[in-house]
Design a protein that fits this description.
The protein is an alpha/beta fold. The protein has 11 helices and 12 strands. The strands form 2 sheets. The protein has a 10-stranded mixed sheet, sandwiched between helices. The structure holds 1,4-dihydronicotinamide adenine dinucleotide.
Length: 333
């Protein structure tokens, strides 16, 4: 049976990098039926809704989904398409590996860590109100249920990938109740995983250690806002947004996407780097249990990056998206 994959090309450079990723995954030899569905600004323009019900249904019924970046329509009343997608499909875990890539020069050449971010609550609960004019409150919601669930996801990921340690990143010294609960839940779940070491780190100290000594971290688990910020930082450690993949995972459901946005400054010019979405496709193949194909695509990508001859502008080259994609397809062994 071919895999049924929902693909959301999205906005800006989204369709360009989605097409590239689809081509590479098709060339890896698996049978994939792509079901293209809309979301974002383009969906609003064409269907009157930035996140049509048809798109949600397609993602729910597919084996997995591959998503390009989407722009949130400007104006009151529109929530982020990404936040809505994660909340409506209960994609509670954001998984972002940061691993040094061959040929990409960065400050450190041996980064290999995973950020696991809680995706459904914290300050992204959307609970904001004006108390009196000039005073606004945003509610930061932390629940035992979501905290235990994300902690368990982090430990299960660590176990599956033969990782040694999970670090809970928090601010429980100040946010004693909310982050106190998050840390407590992580500690309790840690007791179920005696084969994996556990420690914790205050978020500001974690930020400092990440930029000075990122090798000390293995799997890091944190609430939504801290994860949003620190996972972009870890992306910067390994070459930036153009090369960092991610997955949003729920119960038997996952959406794989690059962490970058729609890059309006280069959209439509055919020069975007598709590496992040191709690597998201690699994560998708692993999620589907297709380890061999995942390894092949990853090897091909590494070969092209290491050779350094066919690189897009963000990596210092002058190749187009198409030339880079052709090079990766040709490098498949
Ligand atoms: P951005 O990631 O789109 O762009 C930041 C910079 O990185 C730009 O200079 C851009 O050219 C460059 N860049 C990003 N991806 C690249 C790639 N694959 N190849 C080469 N260069 C690349 O961030 P920005 O400008 O803050 O956001 C633009 C739009 O994207 C906004 O509407 C935002 O809401 C949306 N966005 C969507 C996301 C998603 O759907 N997952 C994530 C982040 C932002």
């Amino acid at each position: 049976m071919p895999y049924s994959i929902a693909v959301i090309p999205g906005d800006g450079i989204g369709p360009e990098v989605a097409e590239a990723a689809q081509r590479v995954l098709d060339a890896a030899g698996l049978e994939i039926t792509w079901n293209e569905v809309p979301a974002g600004q383009s969906a609003l323009e064409q269907h009157g809704d930035p996140l049509p019900a048809e798109t949600l249904a397609a993602v729910q019924s597919a084996d997995a989904a591959l998503k390009g970046p989407t722009a949130t329509p400007k104006g009151v009343g529109f929530h982020s398409v990404n936040v809505a997608l994660r909340q409506q499909l209960n994609l509670y875990a954001n998984y972002r590996p940061a691993r040094s890539l061959p040929g990409i020069k960065t400050r450190f050449d041996d980064v290999d860590l995973i950020v696991v971010r809680e995706n459904t609550e914290g300050l992204y609960s959307g609970l904001e109100h004006t108390v009196v004019p000039g005073v606004v409150e945003s509610l930061r919601v932390i629940t035992r249920k979501a905290s235990e669930r994300i902690a368990r996801f982090a430990f299960e990921t660590a176990r599956r990938q033969n990782r040694q340690r999970v670090t809970c990143v928090h601010k429980a010294n100040i946010l004693k109740l909310s982050d106190g609960l998050f840390l407590e839940c992580c500690r309790e779940v840690a007791e179920e995983f005696s084969d994996i070491a556990f420690d914790d780190c205050i978020v500001d100290a974690a930020a400092m250690k990440l930029v000075s000594d990122p090798q000390v971290f293995d799997v890091m688990v944190m609430e939504n806002l801290f994860g949003d910020i620190l996972s972009d930082l870890t992306s910067g450690l390994v070459g930036g947004l153009g090369v960092t993949p991610s997955a949003n995972v729920g119960e038997n459901l996952a959406v794989f996407e690059a962490v970058h946005g729609t890059a309006p400054d280069i959209a439509g010019r055919g020069i975007a780097n598709p590496t992040a979405l191709i690597l998201s496709g690699v994560l998708m193949l692993r999620f589907l249990g297709e380890k061999e194909s995942a390894d092949r695509v990853e090897r091909a990508l590494h070969t092209v990056l290491a050779a350094g001859k066919t690189l897009t502008g963000d990596l210092g080259g002058n190749s187009s998206t198409l030339e880079f994609t052709n090079a990766v397809v040709s490098a498949l062994d």
